[in-house]
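Session log. Operator J.P. requested a structure for one protein chain; no other inputs attached. Running the standard single-chain path with token output.
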Amino acid sequence: MERYREILLDIKGDRSSGAGLITQKTIACLDALLDEVKSGTGPELISSIHATAADILKEQPGMAQLVNLFNIVFVTIEEKANEDPVCRRRRIRGVLRRFKECSRNAVAQIASLGAQLIVDDCVVLLHSNSSTILEIVKKAHADGRTFQVILAESRPIGEGRACAQELSGLGIPTTYFVDAAISKGLVRSDLVLLGADSLSEKTLINKVGTQAICLLAREAIVPCYAACESTKFISSRLSPKKEMPRAPSEVWDSPPTDVTVENYYFDEVGLDLFSGILTEDGIATASEIAQQVCSQRLSTRLLEIVK
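Structure written below.
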């Protein structure tokens, strides 16, 4: 089981890759597991898959795509508990293949849809460094639209800087604001496009600062859209627990005595603050998203793991 263990160790130690890449590695890990656990009984394979999920989710918590992947695999197993091991292995492989294809195709479909919102001479406000939002901007640029970008720095890590470098490489005029001054950029904007790390029945999770931007957009009557592929839709019962403060040193290396630094990466934002949610199936309303998420079947075994 060398290949399986090698991929598993890589996933557990990965602290720099995004959810998309981690999920692709997990699919490869499960593929290797299916290859290498061929002896023994069906229950042994199921037990190995459950243990792998628990191991990965412990080291990579809060990634909606990962949780969704395991949920679909677990539900597939639970639907036919007494299935022949060979048939079960084949069905799980099919689930992994379809999930991978869906993830890959969804971003391209969202990019085509979102690019239509960017018209000539438009000013678009972005926050953080969402790969899905970047694909939208790239598609609009490739389609020949002329537009400008307003960009927030996105503290504490400052992902906005990496996004600015990407935009500069494309030759897209970009104005970069510190987060606290983003209101000055928003009043000059015609459109706000934001990414999402996960999306549940009533809220989405995205980079800290997202809620303030959404409230400012509503006050200024600027259309505000979030982009999220359906592989990131997740029931609140499976959603990450409340975020704990991150390393204070990322904000202030040596604060004075009696000064406590609280450092957060994410905001939880109500879907009602958005003009719409861009998905691979079109622009959805908050109620449509809620219906889709509520219709998901949840694995009882996975609910136990993520508690």
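Operator note: Residues 85-115 form the longest helix (31 residues).
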